[in-house]
Amino acid sequence: MRFLDMRHFFLAFSAGLISFSFQTTSYKSCFLSVFIALAVLLSYHSHHLLKLLRNQENRILSSSQLKSSIILYALSLFLLYFLWPLLNFQQLIIYAIFILVAMSISYSFLSGKLSIRNIPYLKAVFIALSWTTLCCIIPLYYSHKLFLPASTFLFFFFILAIIADYRDRKSDPITLKTIPQILPFKRFLFLIYFLSGLFIVLNFILFGWLFFISAIFSVFTLFYYFRQFVLLNETLNTDRAIFAFGLTSLLLRAFVG
Asked: Cα-flanking dihedrals φ and ψ of residue 79, to 5°?
């Protein structure tokens, strides 16, 4: 298994892209999007590394993998440290970032009752809340906009989280009681369709037609890759829905205004 999984880089880039959708166009907006992308990269990379270290078959890492790890950590931390004073975060954002860091540590590094991922029913909720806060609420608040409408993206990231739980439903402990473990497949599909429709409608009401179109593209992308996974047993690539939303929003802003 390759240590540097390109999916982590793509996911981080997608997070930065969608966060840019909520901001006014400026150099500080670009810096914040880079900061968010680096935070996602560091978080997922840490979780991936920990899984490798806990796996007996991968306990001995090659020197090239270790070098790659050290370089990635050093570069990411340096860039985050460099960007922090440039962004001049408001106090509320600083509190939110530290809470997100604590949640990430609990999710990836702690075990038993100390890990939020082991709380029954709530695993997907924590993931959705973390992504919504980092990629949507913080950018809106940073741009001095009303940030409460960003809560609609809880539905979007919750759908992504429970679809990932569907992939892991057989390997996850039954004590987690994830949505796919407790709902029959037809009800699970209905929940996804209902929340997706709600997400699209709320984007139109709260943000206007630009986000409405972006939401439609992202939901179609989500359904396409989920269908490929269920019917053809292909790799689950529903995270590309994040990229679809960010890219569509960026293109519409650039060419339509």
From this structure: -65, -40
